[in-house]
Design brief:
The chain is 23% helix and 31% strand. It contains nine helices and 22 strands. Strands 9, 11, 14, 15, 16, 17, 18, 19, 20, 21 and 22 form an eleven-stranded mixed β-sheet that branches. Strands 1, 2, 4, 5, 6, 7 and 8 form a seven-stranded mixed β-sheet that branches. The longest helix is centred in the N-terminal third of the chain and has 31 residues, at 125-155.
Length: 574
């Protein structure tokens, strides 16, 4: 017990000394840390169930958040909310790093309590110890049951060359020096009211909304190996959404969102308002766009469309995680059906030879732009690292957590809250690129070879994570594969014909090798890794020209148009 606390305190002192000017922990944080340390030490020395193995590893994560949000419609207040909470996540491992209770799906484990527990917002040492004790007890009981079930399942299965369940890593300590605070509802309202007024004077819109959210989060992590991190992060989101119907009756909605760690770093209000108006005007114009049932041929994905396409089809395949053992005989077959195809493609070509992909979450900025994908330490207390994933088209590495796979034994510091290790700042790098004019010419040349009179250009694809926040997500286009909301037919004379939303169909990862050209300029795009979460990936990518993609109409129900016009159809906007 004494050695454990001395180790943690020494690491904290060394980190604070090296950082210089680090914010001092509050008295409340000191009490929380002491309660966590003391209960962890007691757990390691005393916790044991009959003849079952004791814990060999314990980790605590406490996340304390304060959030505010407000919603406005056409300049009028439509609701606000403010919340604050503190939650504890407990990880208990029993057995050994070679074989423990993790990487196991127990279909008959019963209920022993969840892994996330609400912690009172108090500086009472006694009350904090009580909550931590109960959460640890529940986690340990579940761990013991899972280990026994896992051993039984392994006796009934033949698994060759099974990797260890936990990797050995060097200890890491991080004390953040940033401080964040959520804006008040009144401060958010000043911005939201202006943004929502952007949709006034647009009677062809059936609904619109502007929403502002501010979150401040404080995170403390410590484990029994001596890893420790304590830092603050924030997120400010400004979103604007609108909805209408096509002339045939299909409901369509679109939105635009801005993200920053602090609301002070959001774009200027007038700039955001202008972007919302442009989005709404594109949405209104698409009411009379041409319907296209299907398309097979060359497709140019420009800027946002390229980045969002990579977000949906590449990010989830860049992480390596071991196959989970299960006591359900059908589970292994299900896992094979949904297995990451990149796991078997290491040292094989997955991209064209002129493209490389690098993950570098250590970078704060790129070309003067702040990168939301930057982070110092992951959710398992491991430092972030630069990793070259794809080199000249060849897959060289995948992102990992502390759960080893057959090919990767150590963590890349990529455990970010999702089940699969995820990137931070993802850079798509090309040996050479084309100007926009050259890309259009190449698109039309390919289209002619396909016997087509035009090529298809995608400029915006719906972000499913952001779309979840869309109050109009009942739109038929928000089910299934997210559609392209802004796309045109490009003709040889340079003319463009807007097309109603379409989706990329039947895409498989081998199609990445069909990228035949990219732009010389790159687009910076922030992607939330989970709905409402603070973790982001930033994709820096050129526009992408695919030689061959299949597109189909987004379809959907077509309710009848309103019988009467908008009540303010004859009024000028303010």
């Amino acid at each position: 017990m004494g050695r454990f606390r001395i180790q943690i305190c020494a690491l904290l002192f060394a980190s604070a000394t090296l950082a210089g000017g680090v914010h001092a922990q509050s008295d409340e944080d000191d009490v929380l840390l002491r309660a966590l340390q003391d209960e962890m030490a007691r757990t390691l020395s005393d916790l044991r169930l009959d003849l079952e193995p004791p814990p060999y590893f314990v980790a605590y994560t406490v996340s304390e958040s304060k959030s505010t949000n407000t919603t406005y419609v056409l300049g009028a207040h439509n609701g606000s909310n403010e919340s604050r909470g503190r939650f504890l996540s407990v990880v208990v491992r029993v057995g050994t790093p070679e074989l423990d209770n993790t990487n196991f799906t127990n279909f008959g484990g019963g209920f022993f309590g969840g892994s996330s527990n609400r912690v009172p917002l108090t500086a009472s040492y006694d009350e904090l110890r009580r909550v931590i004790w109960l959460a640890t007890d529940a986690a340990y009981k579940r761990a013991v049951a899972d280990l026994a079930a896992k051993k039984a399942a392994l006796e009934q299965q033949t698994i060759s060359d099974r990797p260890n369940d936990f990797s050995e890593e060097e200890t890491f300590t991080h004390m953040g020096d940033n401080s964040y605070d959520a804006l008040s509802i009144e401060e958010l309202s000043q911005i939201a009211q202006v943004l929502s007024s952007a949709f006034r004077g647009m009677p062809d819109l059936h609904a619109s909304v502007a929403r502002l959210t501010s979150v401040a989060n404080k995170r403390m992590y410590l484990d029994s190996e001596g890893n420790f991190s304590h830092y603050e992060t924030g997120l400010c989101t400004a979103s604007m959404y609108a909805r209408t119907q096509t002339l045939e009756g299909a409901g369509i909605s679109d939105g635009v969102s801005f993200y920053s760690r602090s609301c002070e770093d959001l774009p200027a209000i007038d700039e955001m308002k202008s972007s919302g108006q442009e989005m709404a005007m594109r949405l209104v114009a698409s009411r009379s766009a041409e319907a296209l049932d299907n398309y097979n041929g060359p497709v140019l994905l420009e800027e946002q469309a390229a980045a969002e396409f990579l977000s949906q089809n590449l990010i989830g395949r860049l992480g390596a995680e071991p196959s989970s053992i299960s006591n359900n005989p059908n589970y292994a077959a299900r896992q094979r059906n949904f297995a990451n195809p990149f796991l078997d493609r290491v040292n094989a070509r997955v991209f064209p030879r002129f493209l490389s992909v690098v993950n570098d979450p250590t970078l704060l900025e790129f070309e003067g732009n702040k990168l939301l994908g930057h982070y110092v330490v992951d959710n398992q207390g491991m430092p972030s690292r630069r990793v070259e994933l794809i080199s000249n088209g060849m897959l060289k590495a995948l992102l990992t957590s502390r759960s080893p796979t057959k090919s990767f034994e150590n963590s890349t510091g990529s455990s970010r809250g999702s089940s699969t290790p995820a990137p931070g700042n993802l850079f798509i790098e090309a040996k050479e690129g084309m100007s926009n004019e050259e890309l259009n010419e190449e698109l039309l040349t390919l289209a002619d070879e396909y016997g087509l009179e035009y090529g298809l250009v995608l400029r915006k694809i719906m972000n499913p994570r952001d779309a979840f926040q869309d109050p109009f997500r009942s739109s038929p286009f928000q089910s299934g594969s997210p559609p392209a909301l802004d796309l045109v037919k490009l003709y040889p004379d340079g003319s463009e014909v807007p097309v109603l939303p379409m989706t990329v169909s039947n895409f498989v990862v081998s199609f990445f090798k069909d990228i035949i050209a990219v732009s010389e300029d790159r687009f910076i795009y922030d992607v939330p890794l989970a709905t409402g979460g603070l973790n982001f990936a930033t994709i820096v990518t050129p526009s992408l020209l695919f030689e061959d993609l299949s597109m189909r109409s987004a379809g959907g129900a077509k309710p009848k148009l309103p019988l009467f016009p908008h009540p303010f159809a004859g009024e000028a906007g303010e």
